Amino acid sequence: MITSKENCLLALEHKKPEWVPSFSEMLMCGGAEETFENGPRTGGKDGFGVGWAVTSSSGGQGTPLPNQSQFDDITEWKEKVVFPDLDAYDWEGSAKAQLSAGNPDTQLVEYQCWNWSFLRMTHIMGFENALCAMMEDEEACMDFFDAIADYKIRLAERIHKYFHPDMITSFDDVATERGLFMAPDVYRRLIKPSHKKVNDAIRQMGILPAIHCCGKCEDIIPDFIEEGNVAWSSAQPINDIEKILQQYGDKLTVIGGYDTNGKPAQPTATTEEIQAEVRRAMDTYAPYGSYIFFGFMLVDSDNPEEVMKAMMPIFEEAGRYGRDFYKK
């Protein structure tokens, strides 16, 4: 019997796993614990000086406060942006605490690195200013994104030293449920180079790079691959996931599939509706092999125990149905 880690790696290597891997089997680190990226869990400023609030409507995740643009002219970024002091963070203590939540020997360790190039610009400038900057001064934007890439590489070096992850997933939500925030060509010119620069460094550390991008981003899936990503999460079915797996399943692993925009993710969803959606996702996408199930509920609570309780029907059905899937 292979371990959960070995099974996940089969999917990430674009091979057929023994059972359908699920995100709930992974040992996930980083993310909300990065106070220098997202502020304290109770709310406050991050290492860039951006203020965050923790709300129940976001399921307890930090949300940047409104109306706090540090500047509206992207050419001012060199004078205005203050980068976090990464050495002031308790890396050793954080790694010990987070890794003790599971077993790195048998679980795939995924470090979730939030707020990549585009998202960090929106946090510092606000969405409107950031999008306008990308239209008005591409050179300054590229300089900013390159500086963020250098910062993320320094961050990855510390992640590598203390967490020894199998995979680093960088978060950059560049799309809504209707499409990209910018034209694909703009993404390719301005953002893609910074993503590739970080991924190249991550690969040199012996770590698998992946990208998290919610929304309808199917137009830039080939770019995700060219950036060096082995996986894309959290893939929502507003994209043609089946077509993506047919075209790129030998190059990119899809992590997702659950309808997080629809009724199965709502607090009013019944256990039967949740189970049916887990089975639909696996029945549709798992036959391609390069697939790891991922799904979540929209929980109106900032209590981690309440959020986890709401997720349990997804976890349980994914484990039960996924274990027997390839035995059919």
What structural keywords apply?
12 helices; three-stranded antiparallel beta sheet; 10 strands; 328 residues; seven-stranded parallel beta sheet; TIM Barrel; alpha/beta
Describe this structure in words.
The protein contains twelve helices and ten strands. With 328 residues, it is α/β, with parallel strands linked by helices. The chain has one domain (26-256): TIM Barrel (Alpha-Beta Barrel). Helix 4 (91-99) crosses helix 7 (138-163), helix 5 crosses helix 7 and helix 7 (138-163) runs parallel beside helix 8 (184-204).
TL;DR of this structure?
By secondary structure, this protein is of the alpha/beta class. The chain has a single domain, classed as TIM Barrel. It has helices at residues 4-12, 35-38, 77-80, 91-99, 117-125, 127-136, 138-163, 184-204, 221-226, 241-248, 271-285, 304-324, and strands spanning 27-30, 44-45, 51-54, 62-64, 109-113, 167-171, 208-212, 231-235, 253-257, 291-294.
Strand order of the largest sheet: 1-5-6-7-8-9-10
Please indicate the count of domains.
1
Q: Fill in the CATH topology.
A: TIM Barrel
* Beta content: 5-15%
Largest sheet composition:
7 strands, parallel
Radius of gyration of CA atoms, rounded to a whole number: 19 Å
- In CATH, the architecture is Alpha-Beta Barrel
Helix content: 40-55%
CATH class bucket: Alpha Beta
- Pick out the low-confidence regions: none
Name the structural class. Answer: alpha/beta
Mean pLDDT: 96
Shape: globular
